[in-house]
Design brief:
alpha/beta, Rossmann fold, Helicase, Ruva Protein, domain 3, 5 domains, 6-stranded parallel beta sheet, 6-stranded mixed beta sheet, globular
């Protein structure tokens, strides 16, 4: 008999191809598609020969189709606006489909989402696939969705495995191996065989400095048959402990021909493919039976998600359904959870948490962390032939400790240096230096080297000069943000709060949003890839959240993140601009107090969103109407009237959490002309002028005319860009359509209309 498996081939780089063997867990990267197919075929044959193990693939004459869905709720445009979403994100996902040879119906598999479903009418496939894909994407974090989009469109190939149907299939101990359909569908046996392990990372599978915790887990789970929750912060080593535990019990079973087998299942897999009432419960019943027959032990990463799986209400979801089976010993479970998530679990479904024995993982001492980092460097040197220098280790530790306080060592160090080594291998580099560490850190966070290198001094006067050139007519604002940068550079900001919390007060159109944009570019604008929502400014219009019921759209409801949480989880290093904050509902202000004070937001399941690497800026027009009309005022106003208006509008507990109130002044005539000159000079960067090699010069008369036309007493300088487009760009475009020019310059003047003259 011959089994034919589909293979999806993705060209990641010119010399790197990823292959996914559909229907199995096998993934491999090689230099080209043929090498990928050879490697996958070899894995299948070796696993069948050595362990008598293979997966049936029952889709005959399978085909591939890219199925597209539109994902909401949030989309980030070029200005960083996050809500409301004016556009939808189009995600294309490959599906494999065809007639199932076993039951005569049809089957569809979605490998990138670990999904599969059956259908009875061939015409239903696309609609059902779109429904399934949309449901899964809505459960994923923004980073996961963008990572999935990055795969692109694969090409479909195939590999085959010849099997002997009359051959007796043996298990670990020589006994006939049983078929466990739900275990095979929902779980993966641990530890993964070498042929199963994905080759895309260079990370070791060792629980360094955590052997005592591995022993505690073994005693609780194997000797006492207890259900166990490993409780620790992200990166504390929970998964590493379980990987080591899996190897130990697998070795025991191989030696003694008996014992438990560990299976790993993501919580969301329990409902994959379930379309009708009762289907996931039926799958859970089958899983429990299979675990009993296989003497299986179930490992559930992120176990708190069980409270949301199957139903949005914890009391009727998968955790509640499995609770009596766990408590009565009909299934044994080991879960991973953070302390905050455990608190949320105890609050929402107390009986479930009480079914487990708790194994706590505390913070690892610095000496042990450095010991692990040195072992990690030795591992990379031996296995990847990449040397990680001592300064690189020290720099990585320092930066990770400061900028990622919400994750723990050793996990964040292993992950960071693992990525560095992956890049080094791909680029054929043999050495990782301090400079390479800083380069990757800049790419991940957008932070400039000024903040990452202690040896680079802050040039205060140059900083103020640069800001004054970009933020025109607002010296008080420049002084405030310069002070924030000085404090952050010195490392004296409170690490348990946002970098800064500011309220920008002033009339419309005087530069509040422009200042936020300049600050975001300075702090977090160094990322090379600015696509896919990487704009360092998160801008949210708070006038969209006037009603108390809209708090779920803003923060989330525990099942889906709201606009603010969605944006900050995707861009934890950013400037968050909350426009017109005074228009938000009172309950939104109350919810923001914890963020402003502690720099974190925790949902009802205990999952945290970290704001400690953000600058939070709120803008307000409160007090603007009590002052003299906005115009070409030559006298800068004080902030006294604004202070009084703000104290009347906002509660004291809100104002007390602000680091500073920055008052923006009315723009003077000279300021308007400077802004006009800046907007006109920015036209030089437009593609149409650059491809024609044209330079532009502007007369003082034109600048004066645009300043008069583009300034409005009510809206300040906001209409200025529209005036530039209407008075200059539209007319220049018509002139270029009628005149063939290539190279040289254009002189633009105003004399009862726009005058255009070509210069050499």
């Amino acid at each position: 008999m011959q089994i034919t498996y589909p293979v999806l081939l993705y060209n990641l780089t010119e010399n790197t191809t990823l292959g996914i063997c559909v229907g199995t867990e096998y993934r491999v990267t090689e230099r080209d598609g043929q090498r990928v197919k050879d490697a996958l075929s070899d894995y299948l044959k070796r696993n069948y020969k050595k362990r008598d193990d293979y997966r049936y693939f029952d889709i005959a004459d399978f085909k591939m189709k890219m199925v597209g869905v539109n994902v909401r709720p949030n989309y980030t445009d070029d200005d960083g606006n996050d809500f409301p979403a004016k556009k939808e994100l189009r995600v294309e996902v490959p599906v494999i489909f065809g007639e199932n040879t076993e039951n005569g119906n049809y089957e569809c598999q979605i490998p990138l989402l670990d999904g599969r479903f059956y259908y009875y009418d061939a015409r239903q496939m696309k609609v059902l696939a779109q429904h399934f894909i949309t449901a899964q994407l809505n459960r994923m974090s923004p980073d996961e969705v963008y990572r999935l989009m990055g795969y692109g469109t694969p090409r479909l190939e195939k590999v085959t495995l010849k099997i002997n149907e009359n051959r007796e299939i043996k298990g670990w101990g020589g006994e006939a191996k049983q078929d466990f359909p739900q275990l095979n569908r929902l779980c993966e046996e641990m530890p993964l065989a070498k042929s199963d392990r994905r080759k895309r990372t260079a990370l070791p599978q060792t629980a360094w400095e955590l052997k005592d915790k591995v022993t505690e887990l073994y005693e609780a789970a194997i000797l006492k048959n207890a259900n166990v929750l490993l409780v620790g912060k992200r990166g504390s080593g929970k998964s590493a402990i379980l990987q080591q535990f899996a190897r130990i019990i697998a070795a025991d079973k191989k030696t003694n021909n008996e014992g438990k087998t560990l299976y790993r299942m993501l919580p969301q897999r329990l409902t994959y493919g379930a379309k009708y009432l009762g289907e996931w419960q039926e799958a859970a019943d089958g899983l429990i039976r299979d675990l009993q027959n296989a003497d299986g032990l179930l490992w559930i990463p992120d176990i708190v998600r069980l409270l949301q799986t199957g139903d949005n209400r914890p009391e009727t979801g998968a955790a509640a359904y499995l609770q009596p089976f766990i408590r009565e010993g009909k299934m044994q479970v080991i879960g991973e959870i953070t302390p905050e998530e455990l608190d949320g679990m105890r609050r929402l479904l107390p009986g479930f948490a009480e079914s487990f024995q708790i194994l706590n993982l505390g913070e690892m001492p610095e000496t042990k962390v450095f010991g692990i980092l040195h072992k990690l460097a030795e591992f990379f040197d031996k296995n990847q032939k990449v040397t990680v220098t001592q300064p690189a280790l020290q720099t990585g530790y320092r930066l990770l400790k400061r900028y990622f306080p919400y994750e723990s060592f050793p996990g964040k160090g292993i992950k960071f240096f693992g990525r560095l080594v992956d890049i080094a291998v791909a680029e054929n580099r043999k050495r990782i230096t301090k400079d390479r560490v800083i380069d990757l850190f800049t790419e991940q966070t957008g932070l400039p080297e000024l903040f990452l290198r202690d040896e680079i001094p802050l040039q205060k006067e140059q900083l103020r000069s640069d800001f004054n050139a970009q933020i025109i007519g607002q010296p008080a604002a420049v002084e405030k943000i310069s002070n924030i940068i000085q404090i952050f550079k010195a490392g004296l900001n409170n690490p348990y709060k946002p970098i800064a919390v500011l309220l920008f007060a002033g009339p419309t159109g005087v530069g509040k949003t422009a200042t936020a944009r300049v600050l975001s570019e300075f702090f977090f604008g160094q990322k090379k890839d600015r696509r896919r929502g990487q704009n360092p400014l998160v801008r949210i219009d708070m006038s969209e959240y006037r009603h108390p019921m809209q708090i779920t759209n803003f923060l989330g409801d525990g099942n889906r993140p709201g606009a603010l949480v969605h944006a900050v989880r995707r861009r934890p290093f950013s400037v968050v601009l909350l426009d017109e904050i005074e228009k938000a509902a009172d309950n939104i202000f109350d919810a923001l107090l914890t963020v402003l004070d502690e720099g974190v937001m925790t949902d009802n399941l205990g999952r945290k969103t970290n704001f400690r690497n953000t600058v939070i800026i709120m803008t307000s027009n409160v007090g603007a109407t009590t002052r003299q009309a906005v115009g070409f005022s030559e006298t800068l106003q004080t902030g006294q009237k604004y202070d009084a208006a703000l104290r009347k509008q906002f509660k004291p507990e809100f104002l007390n959490r602000l680091d500073a109130v920055v008052t923006f002044n009315n723009l003077r005539r000279a300021d308007i002309e400077k802004i006009t000159r800046k907007e006109l000079e920015a036209l030089q960067k437009r593609e149409g002028f650059q491809k024609r090699s044209l330079t532009l010069t502007f007369s003082e008369a034109l600048i004066a005319h645009i300043a008069d036309t583009g300034f409005d007493e009510k809206y300040g300088a906001r209409p200025l860009q529209r005036a530039v487009e209407q008075e200059v760009m539209q007319k220049v475009a018509l002139w270029l359509a009628e005149n063939e020019v290539n190279g040289g310059g254009l002189e633009l003047d105003w004399k009862e209309g726009l005058q255009i003259k070509k210069s050499t």
